[in-house]
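pls design
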């Protein structure tokens, strides 16, 4: 069987497979074809892939036609004419492995199903120990958390660390992190490494210990474990009253902050608004907010998707897809996650039968042999009509 890796569409800089993982896929008995130039933004040349045993294909149509399994960083995207050119290239009955955000892209899922594509959505992998090595969400959130602090430091007209110099003492930057999941914890760790003083909020009391272990202060939102998180460890949605109270608590700390990183998310919901315009107005001029929740609507009402804007003398960073701005390491980690997943399903690929009682398969297999498999996505599709 042939694995195909196309070049991602601009502005994506990452690639789904790196040379180190090619050799391991070959050992599993699969052949690997890479589109010429697929790795160039991650500084991987065609000859690096060739040395690892992959074949380079310069014709994208041939690549798709030869491939039984397509590995991607992004789902097939719509073009300006409302068409999916990459989807059109996919061979009937082939396997697509990528993060598909199925509930937001029901139209794409329906089209994949019509083409009898076996679609695995890696963003639906369960957050269980067994699936940790495949967990692209954690790998990419980790990178986004790091980059959010680097961006903030770049836009802040101040130093992060405390400095005692002959010309006077510089006080350390004060950083607030809202949401201490994977991205938030990496933001805390990065801000601490730069010398910032960090304070963090999370609705999950379970996050307190992790925050403190990184040398930051945790501010409790007075929730219990049961109120705050589901069985998968994800935050539960709270009431409007709760968010209003949370805004009041956060408001007390914002006037002191130099940098605020927001990462608060609820799976498959719009991000909660935790910073209002009046709260921004009370911040110190020149402070920076990085809104990592922007793809889900944002935690700050003033941040704008894909942009860096200044409002009320505060810089608001709402850039998307931060992992793509660090394509070398992002591709390396993504490829390792992809390899783990591929190895997991390889024994089942050959018979084209997948064990749907298995938690990993059940969670991320969306369509197979012309059938909608994933119950949540199937339900959403039926509701949509
Ligand atoms: P996420 O990206 O969905 O959310 C980010 C953070 O925002 C979470 O910590 C959440 O509690 C917090 N949050 C939500 N609403 C908030 C609010 N109103 N105020 C303040 N904070 C708020 O979550 P992420 O980072 O993907 O992971 C969350 C949890 O999932 C982890 O802490 C862990 O328990 C679990 N997990 C388990 C893994 C495994 O076992 N393999 C891997 C990764 C995560």
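designed seq:
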């Amino acid at each position: 069987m042939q694995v195909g890796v196309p070049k991602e569409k601009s502005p994506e800089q990452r690639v789904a497979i790196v040379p180190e993982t090619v050799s391991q896929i070959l050992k599993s008995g699969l052949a690997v074809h890479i589109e010429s130039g697929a790795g160039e933004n991650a500084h991987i040349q065609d000859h690096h892939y060739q040395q690892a045993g992959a074949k380079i294909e310069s014709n994208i149509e041939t690549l798709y036609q030869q491939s039984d399994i397509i590995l991607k960083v992004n789902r097939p995207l719509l073009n300006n004419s409302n068409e999916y050119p990459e989807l059109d290239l996919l061979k009937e009955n082939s396997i697509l492995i990528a993060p598909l955000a199925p509930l937001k892209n029901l139209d794409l899922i329906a089209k994949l199903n019509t083409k009898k594509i076996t679609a695995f959505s890696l963003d639906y992998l369960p957050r269980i120990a067994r699936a940790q090595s495949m967990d692209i969400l954690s790998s990419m959130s980790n990178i986004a958390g790091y980059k959010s602090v680097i961006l903030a430091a770049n836009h802040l007209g101040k130093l992060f660390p405390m400095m005692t110099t002959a010309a006077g003492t510089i006080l350390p930057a004060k950083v607030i992190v809202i949401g201490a999941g994977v991205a938030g914890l990496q933001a805390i760790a990065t801000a601490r490494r730069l010398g910032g003083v960090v304070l963090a909020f999370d609705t999950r009391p379970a996050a307190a210990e992790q925050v403190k272990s990184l040398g930051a202060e945790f501010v409790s939102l007075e929730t219990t474990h049961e109120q705050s998180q589901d069985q998968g460890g994800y935050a539960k949605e709270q009431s409007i009253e709760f968010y209003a109270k949370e805004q009041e608590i956060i408001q007390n700390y914002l006037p002191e902050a130099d940098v605020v990183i927001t990462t608060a998310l609820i799976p498959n919901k719009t991000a909660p608004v935790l910073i209002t315009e009046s709260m921004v107005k009370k911040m110190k001029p020149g402070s920076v907010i990085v809104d990592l929740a922007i793809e889900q609507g944002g935690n700050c009402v003033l941040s704008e998707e894909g942009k860096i804007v200044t409002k009320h003398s505060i810089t608001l960073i709402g850039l998307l897809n931060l992992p793509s701005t660090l394509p070398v390491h992002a591709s390396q980690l993504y490829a390792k996650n992809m390899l783990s997943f591929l190895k997991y399903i390889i024994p089942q690929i050959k018979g084209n039968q997948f064990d749907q009682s298995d938690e990993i398969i059940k969670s991320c297999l969306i369509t197979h042999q012309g059938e909608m498999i994933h119950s949540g996505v199937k339900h959403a599709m039926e509701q949509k009509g």
